[in-house]
UniProtKB/TrEMBL annotation:
Name under which the protein is recorded: GNAT family N-acetyltransferase
Entry keywords, A to Z: Acyltransferase, Transferase
Domain N-acetyltransferase residue range list: 3-153
PANTHER family (alphabetical): AMINOALKYLPHOSPHONATE N-ACETYLTRANSFERASE-RELATED-RELATED, BLL8307 PROTEIN
Presence of the UniProt keyword tRNA processing in the record: no
UniProt xrefs under InterPro entries: Acyl_CoA_acyltransferase (IPR016181), Bact_Acetyltransf (IPR050832), GNAT_dom (IPR000182)
Source species taxonomy: Bacteria, Pseudomonadati, Pseudomonadota, Alphaproteobacteria, Sphingomonadales
Organism: Qipengyuania algicida
PROSITE patterns per the UniProt record, alphabetical: GNAT
Superkingdom classification of source: Bacteria
Pfam family of the protein (one): Acetyltransf_1
GO MF annotation list: acyltransferase activity, transferring groups other than amino-acyl groups
Length: 153
């Protein structure tokens, strides 16, 4: 397996399908009003850079970086296709997004995510990479379900 990570083509059918699957899954796994997963139009915002991880012609994962301020970025839409789970692709994507943030002059990365069993694998990955739970940012609120994590680069 050779994974190539590059800018995502948001018109690609596999990319569109994985984005839609991610959004559906987040809505189903979250209490009403607590999911902030971006849909395709949200990922088309000029402040958002979307990456795709490919194994040949098969889409393995997506991830996005949203610039909030000159030195502050937010991770969005981290999603690995079910066929590629537990192969280290999420770690590759996270590292690529961190590298992209550094290349853009971002010195602080933040993310908002949920709580519970469904979110534990992602939370473990973020913690392993140095993210720590912290205060709310942007328009988010910390709730019993929602939490915010931060990493200084």
């Amino acid at each position: 397996m050779t994974i190539a990570i590059r800018a995502a083509d948001l018109g690609d059918a596999q990319v569109i399908a994985l984005i839609a699957s991610h959004q559906r899954d987040m809505l189903e796994a979250s209490p009403p009003g607590t999911s902030f997963a971006l849909d395709l139009s949200g990922l088309q915002d000029p402040a958002v850079s979307v990456l795709a991880a490919w194994d040949g012609k098969a889409l393995a994962a997506i991830g996005a970086l949203k610039r909030l301020a000159p030195a502050h970025g937010e991770l969005k839409s981290m999603r690995t296709d079910a066929a590629f789970l537990r192969r280290g692709i999420a770690r590759l994507m996270l590292d690529a997004l961190i590298d992209l943030a550094r290349d853009q002059g971002i010195t602080r990365l933040s993310l908002e995510t949920g709580s519970g069993e469904k979110f534990e694998p992602a939370l473990a990955l973020y913690r392993q990479r140095g993210f720590a739970i912290g205060p709310a940012f942007a328009d988010y609120r910390v709730t019993e379900f929602n939490q915010c994590l931060h990493l200084d680069l």
